[in-house]
Amino acid sequence: MASPVSSTRSAAQATYSAYKRQPIRWRLAGGSAALTLVILLGFAVIVGTLTTRAIYSDFNRQVASAADRLEAQLRYDFKQLDPNGNPQYTPNIDLDSYVSSTNAAVRVVYLNGQRFDGSRNAPSFGAPDASRKEVDGWRVETREAPLSRPGTAVYYTLAIQYARRMSDVRATANRVKVFLGLGVLGGAGLALLAGLATARRAMEPIAELTATAREVERTGDATVAIPRPEADDEVAELATTFEEMLQALEKERAETALTLERQREFVADASHELRTPLTSVLANLELLEETLTGEHKEAAASALRSSKRMRRLVADLLLLARQDAGRVPIQHRPVDLSEIVAAAAAELEPVAGDHEISITARPGAWIEGVQDELHRLVLNLMENALRHTDPGTAVEASVERQGDQIVLAVEDDGPGIAPELREKVFERFFRAHGDRSGSSGLGLAIVRAVAESHHGSVSLEPPLDGRGARFVVRFPASP
């Protein structure tokens, strides 16, 4: 069971974490409002205490003063004797009228507490006691008054009990507390609004820098003008640092772009230059393979296979280098993608082994493109399916028109591709873990490069019937 101390610490940590997650302007405004609330609360407690004390003290003085005035004014005149010989007195003040304007009560009693006279609304306050201040919600002041008979000594001693309800002064004190509470809340609310407005104005330069950073992220243009605040403060220093960082990044990017451009040019030129000696080597090796016998012929055949693979790799590098360098060696012309798929399937049929290749491609799937590059695209997709599926499985290629697009799909019955590799398979030189097919890892990269150079796209989509892998290439249809 957690101790109260640890629970309190955990709650404090959670509160602090929640506070740190709030935006800066809300933290600034909240801190300002909290500080204002604490100050106003302290002020309200002091003012409220002093004010309520003054109200109660003033009320007590008013009651005492009214009792003193009543003691000085109230007189009972002897009237006559009743049949029992008791004297009858007449007051010189109508007590009901006297107390009607002040919501007070007056009770005149004998010293034993028996009523002698009083206002009609006066309850019993008990026996007169000069030390008693509150009785049943009434503030009571007691004064003694002699009652004499003309021409004689003191006959009776009376007590005047003047009282006012404490609820009157409590209502006033409560109103003061309510007003102070509303003032505290209103002041804290105004402090919060003022803090938000101030924080928003203070954060405007930061917001401008953020907008500039987003613009740089969106456009990739590091040469945009950085807004500078008028004040020479921390925000201005941040803007200067940000500008210097962008300048450094732009310089590095320019140098990197120049280096990459030189590398692309070098790869493209080197690949182009390698084609001629490779063609000569292949011709000589083919001639040697035909003329030699025995082990020498096998060595020549092995060298010929390696040279053909090198030629294929050089051709792939040349195509990718041209795409990177933006070179378009051949003008795009209308071509029928169905015919290209059929030609690629016929070319792979002799080396398909136990695989079953099927195509569904009606003539008339016209697109604008380069026939050799599109042939390479289809060939790579189908070779990829043959290479990564077991013998005896099927590879199917289909071409169809969907609206204003020509869609090429190549499916197989292999093990499929893991979801986390769906984008990586199109990267250059990427080969899955354990891939021993001997591929260069450029096949699908060339597929993407050719598709994009023809204003199309390629994606790995979920198989239709639970099959292995399904590659889909979409091209804009030719008018």
Outline: rod-shaped
Which spans have pLDDT < 50 for at least 5 consecutive residues? none
The CATH superfamily of one domain appears as: Histidine kinase-like ATPase, C-terminal domain
Query: What is the third-level CATH name, the topology of one domain?
Result: Heat Shock Protein 90
Beginning-to-end CA distance, first to last residue? 77 Å
Q: Mind telling me which CATH architecture of one domain this is?
A: 2-Layer Sandwich
Rg value = 52 Å
Q: Structural class of the helices, strands and pairings?
A: alpha+beta
- What fraction of the residues are assigned to beta strands by DSSP? 15-25%
Number of strands: 14
Helix content: 40-55%
Sheet of most strands = 5 strands, antiparallel
The average pLDDT is 78
SS element count, helices: 9
- Classified by CATH, the class of one domain is Alpha Beta
| SSE pattern, N- to C-terminal | HHEEHEEEEEHHHEHEEHEEHEE
Order of adjacent strands in the largest pleated sheet = 4-3-7-6-5
Describe this structure as you would to a colleague.
With 479 residues, the protein is α+β, with helices and mostly antiparallel strands. Among the domains are: 76-166, 2-Layer Sandwich (Beta-Lactamase), CATH 3.30.450; 234-323, Helix Hairpins; 332-476, Heat Shock Protein 90. Helices cover 54% and strands 19% of the residues. It contains nine helices and 14 strands. The chain has helices at 4-20, 24-73, 95-100, 166-219, 234-291, 294-325, 337-348, 371-387, 443-453, and strands at residues 76-81, 87-91, 104-110, 115-118, 134-135, 138-148, 154-165, 333-336, 356-361, 366-369, 394-402, 405-412, 457-461, 470-476. Strands 4-3-7-6-5 form a five-stranded antiparallel β-sheet. Helix 2 runs antiparallel to helix 4 (166-219), helix 5 (234-291) runs antiparallel to helix 6 (294-325) and helix 8 packs antiparallel against helix 9. The longest helix has 58 residues, at 234-291. It is rod-shaped and about 170 Å long. The chain starts with a helix and ends with a strand. The mean pLDDT is 78.
